[in-house]
């Protein structure tokens, strides 16, 4: 029996490319392609759910996560997106892989093989087991998508001097300005390169690339090349770890 599969994607060229690639796998049956949150919610409410979903994350009318907030599914999800900042949230769902565009045939084949390895003979889905295994394979962020009014901007992780929280919002700092993000600092700790970024206190995560000066008396205070108008102090319980981190 073929594996029922659907695509959720709002870019027609991306849909055509993925349909062509999936056609190389004879055991997959592509049921439909959906191009918005609204259309996908409606389809899930009226149709038998597939076993496998290929889904972009940023759609024209929202994030594809919104779909699964409104409908419950046991389908496995392989996310296909140009942005890697949603990795952590993706793996809170039944996501088994996360492919960055443009998708290569070899990467797609590996993702499909991983999907098949999760298929038990009786057809049930152990979501918790999926999450535990996939999280071990998580990659670090290389860029972040931020919103400026009605526009989107991609910020390279190499441009960021620090992340900081203010009024329950987490911002990132670059040479040009600060930008709000959709992360919490706890989430960022899990997806940032720990050799480059360090959480010095409850409010700040800093990048080693932008450290300008470190004062050691009376407290450990860090000056960055670019930082908000706020002093950055290493909390007492983090000083030893901070020194170890600096030493590499």
Could you list the spans in which at least 5 consecutive residues all have pLDDT below 50?
122-138
Helix count equals: 8
Morphology: elongated
Beta-strand percentage range: 25-35%
What number is the mean pLDDT?
85
Name the helicity range: 25-40%
How many β-strand stretches?
17
CA-atom Rg in angstroms: 21 Å
Amino- and carboxy-terminal Cα gap:
53 Å
| Spatial strand sequence of the major β-sheet | 2-1-3-6-7
Q: Structural class per helix/strand content?
A: alpha/beta
Largest sheet: 5 strands, parallel
Q: Characteristics of this structure?
A:
single chain, 248 residues, alpha/beta, five-stranded parallel β-sheet, five-stranded antiparallel β-sheet, 8 helices, Sig_transdc_resp-reg_receiver, Two component transcriptional regulator, LytTR family, phosphoprotein, CheY-like_superfamily, LytTR_DNA-bd_dom
Account of the protein in words:
It is a single chain. By secondary structure, the chain is of the alpha/beta class. Helix content is 28%, strand content 31%. It has a 5-stranded parallel beta sheet. 28% of the residues are buried.
Short description:
The N and C termini lie far apart (53 Å). With 248 residues, the protein is an alpha/beta fold. A hairpin with a 2-residue loop joins strand 10 (162-166) and strand 11.
């Amino acid at each position: 029996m073929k594996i029922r599969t659907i695509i959720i994607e709002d870019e027609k060229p991306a849909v055509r490319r993925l349909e062509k690639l999936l056609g190389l796998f004879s055991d997959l049956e592509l049921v439909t392609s959906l191009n918005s949150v609204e259309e996908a919610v409606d389809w899930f409410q009226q149709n038998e759910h597939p076993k496998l979903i290929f889904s972009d994350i940023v759609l024209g009318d929202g994030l594809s996560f919104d779909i699964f907030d409104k409908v419950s599914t046991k389908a496995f999800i392989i996310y296909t997106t140009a942005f890697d900042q949603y990795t952590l949230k993706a793996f809170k769902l039944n996501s088994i892989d996360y492919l960055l565009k443009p998708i290569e045939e070899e990467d797609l084949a590996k993702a499909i093989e991983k999907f098949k390895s999760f298929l038990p003979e009786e057809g049930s889905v152990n979501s918790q087991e999926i999450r535990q295994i996939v999280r071990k394979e998580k990659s670090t962020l290389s860029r972040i998508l931020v919103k400026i009014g009605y526009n989107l901007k991609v910020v390279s992780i190499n441009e960021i001097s620090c992340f900081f929280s203010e009024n329950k919002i987490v911002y990132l700092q670059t040479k040009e300005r600060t930008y709000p993000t959709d992360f919490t600092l706890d989430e960022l700790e899990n997806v940032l390169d720990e050799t480059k970024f360090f959480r010095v206190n409850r409010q700040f995560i800093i990048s080693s690339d932008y450290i300008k000066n470190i004062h050691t008396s009376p407290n450990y205070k860090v000056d960055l090349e670019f930082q908000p108008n706020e002093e950055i102090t290493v909390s007492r319980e983090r000083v030893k770890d901070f020194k170890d981190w600096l030493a590499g």
